[in-house]
Amino acid sequence: MDGILIIDKPESFTSHDVVARLRRILKTKRIGHTGTLDPFATGVLVMLVGKATRLAQFLDRDAKEYEAVIRFGFETDTGDRTGRQKAEGRKQKAEGRRQKAE
Description:
This protein is an alpha+beta fold. It has two domains: about 5-60, Alpha-Beta Plaits, CATH 3.30.70; about 70-100, no CATH class. The chain has three helices and five strands; from the N terminus they run E-H-E-E-H-E-E-H. It has a three-stranded antiparallel sheet with strand order 1-3-2, with helices on one face. It has a two-stranded antiparallel sheet with strand order 4-5. Strand 4 (about 75) and strand 5 form a beta hairpin. The mean pLDDT is about 85.
């Protein structure tokens, strides 16, 4: 089988999990993708099967768009939502001191 598949990757799957599952379903080892998504991310994975894997060098040049929810004044040790809180912003610290004083 040769071709391109568009997969809507669910949360908790890695990009490699999707590759492994497709290899089992399609009974082929020649599968690749044009970009990696973090396990907690959802979104589109462009999967290339068989001879279509040669197209990867052309397909990953396109512009990409990302949607994100950002929380300012909050930092984790991994730089994403999976990490432990590392530091609080100034506003959060000030609010915490105010609450303790009351």
